[in-house]
């Protein structure tokens, strides 16, 4: 008999009823150190007092009106995002997948508005992940995501990541856009070298194709800059963001330049809930804290501390771990044993990590995690690795 909740998730046995900063607490009081951050979502930790006050205050005023009317909180958040990024305009969504849907539609609509509707093809790369809608699983082109859901969205050209010759050969006058994650998240925490991001920007400029960055997982301060593409000194034409922007409140956004968004006029796209007063009140409060140089400098300092300790962990357990990679507080530890064994051993030591592609465990803690909690989390992973070694 099918359960009341559709069985699409393979859930762990824990049931959390409370959170405090970087800790999650079960009904019986058992505390787990959260090194996964709800998959890079709780950028400011669980039950942040300031954000809780923002939610409470807004909840007593207004939750929802729809986008039929002006929403002051949405305007305020849009102005903050425009001021801090390359973008001139934003469209608000409820999720990262919806932000990517808007990005893909914006890219195609741009060429239609240019009188070149034949430019519809979109280049994506192996190992990517852009969401779970039909369009976004088509973009990732992974059998794991697409099996049983065909026919998929036409006009997607999925290339091998790092094959520069294939990319140049594919950039003909049918290409509307190239979609890239500056750091692949689900694919295994794989940063794109700055030179590749610069080269892609140059190639898009030469051919006219729009450059679309998916910063749903790697954005909002996760790498030590507000957005990961900033490290390469380049700017996209369109960008999808979500996850950390709402700290767990459902919120996403598609950001674009005025040029790229010129086709997105009244009636071309919409959302009932997207950018409602509650979500945008939270998003504005998150931006006020994350988009500051002092906060981002602390992310970099903490990432150095965490990286150093994880390198020591790998060195201490060479039969369990292979290497550490990533950027900022978006770190992958590649395993020699099945990564789910490491995740499960972590559960036993009351530390939470996230499995990812290429047999990594992802470490995506709150950006304001404390130094002592970093040390505690790595210590728990050390004990988890020792338990695995004992039965190898």
Average pLDDT for all residues: 97
**N-to-C series of helices and strands:** EEEHHHEHEHHEHEEEHEEEHHEEHEEEH
Note the main sheet.
7 strands, mixed
Q: How far do the termini sit from each other? A: 38 Å
Number of domains: 2
Q: What Rg, in angstroms, do the CA atoms define?
A: 21 Å
Assembly status: single chain
- Number of separate helices: 12
- Kindly report the CATH topology of the largest domain: Aspartate Aminotransferase, domain 2
Uncertain residue segments: none
Would you mind describing this structure in some detail?
With 392 residues, the protein is of the alpha/beta class. It folds into 2 domains: 16-34 and 293-389, Alpha-Beta Complex (Aspartate Aminotransferase, domain 1), CATH 3.90.1150; 50-290, Type I PLP-dependent aspartate aminotransferase-like (Major domain) (Aspartate Aminotransferase, domain 2, 3-Layer(aba) Sandwich). Helix content is 37%, strand content 19%. α10 packs parallel to α12 (371-389). The chain is globular and about 65 Å long. The mean pLDDT is 97.
List the helices and strands and how they pair.
Blueprint lengths: L15 E5 L2 E4 L4 E4 L2 H4 L8 H11 L12 H13 L4 E5 L2 H18 L7 E5 L8 H7 L2 H4 L9 E4 L4 H7 L4 E6 L2 E2 L5 E2 L2 H14 L2 E5 L23 E4 L10 E5 L20 H14 L2 H24 L4 E7 L2 E6 L3 H10 L2 E2 L1 E3 L3 E4 L7 H19 L3
Helix pairs in contact: 2-9, 3-9, 10-12, 11-12
Please give a quick description of this structure:
The protein is α/β, with parallel strands linked by helices. The chain is built from twelve helices and 17 strands. The strands form four sheets. Strands 4-12-11-10-7-5-6 form a seven-stranded mixed β-sheet, sandwiched between helices. The chain has a four-stranded mixed β-sheet with strand order 1-2-3-15. It has a four-stranded antiparallel β-sheet with strand order 13-14-17-16.
């Amino acid at each position: 008999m099918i359960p009341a909740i559709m069985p699409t998730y393979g859930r762990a046995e824990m049931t959390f009823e409370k959170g405090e900063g970087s800790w999650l607490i079960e009904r019986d009081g058992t505390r787990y150190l959260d090194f996964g951050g709800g998959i890079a979502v709780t950028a400011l930790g669980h039950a942040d007092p300031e954000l809780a006050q923002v939610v409470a205050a807004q909840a007593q005023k207004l939750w929802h009106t729809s986008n039929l009317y002006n929403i002051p909180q949405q305007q305020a958040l849009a102005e903050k995002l425009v001021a801090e990024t390359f973008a001139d305009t934003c469209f608000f969504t409820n999720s990262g997948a919806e932000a990517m849907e808007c990005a893909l539609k914006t890219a195609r609509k741009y060429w239609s508005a240019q009188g070149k509707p034949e430019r519809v093809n979109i280049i994506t790369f192996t190992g990517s992940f852009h969401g779970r809608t039909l369009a976004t699983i088509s973009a990732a082109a992974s059998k794991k995501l697409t099996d049983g859901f065909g026919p998929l969205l036409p006009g997607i050209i999925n290339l091998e990541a790092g094959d520069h010759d294939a990319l140049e050969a594919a950039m003909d006058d049918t290409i509307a856009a190239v979609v890239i994650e500056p750091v692949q998240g689900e694919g295994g925490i794989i940063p794109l070298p700055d030179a590749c991001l610069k080269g892609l920007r140059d190639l898009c400029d030469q051919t006219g194709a729009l450059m679309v960055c998916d910063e749903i997982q790697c954005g909002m301060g996760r790498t030590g800059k507000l957005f990961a593409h900033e490290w390469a000194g380049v700017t996209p034409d369109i960008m999808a963001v979500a996850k950390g922007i709402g700290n767990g409140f459902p919120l996403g956004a598609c950001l674009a330049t005025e040029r790229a968004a010129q086709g997105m006029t009244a009636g071309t796209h919409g959302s009932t809930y997207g950018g409602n007063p509650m979500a945008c009140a939270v998003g504005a409060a998150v931006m006020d804290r994350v988009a500051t140089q002092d906060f981002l400098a602390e992310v970099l300092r903490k990432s150095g501390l965490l990286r150093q300790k994880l390198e020591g962990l790998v060195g201490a357990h060479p039969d369990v771990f292979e290497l550490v990679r990533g950027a900022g507080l978006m770190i992958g530890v590649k395993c020699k044993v099945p990564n789910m064994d490491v995740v499960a051993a972590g559960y036993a030591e009351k530390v939470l990590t996230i499995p990812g592609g290429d047999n990594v465990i992802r470490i995506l803690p709150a950006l304001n995690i404390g130094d002592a909690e970093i040390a505690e989390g790595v210590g728990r992973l050390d004990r988890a690795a020792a338990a695995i070694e004992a039965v190898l």
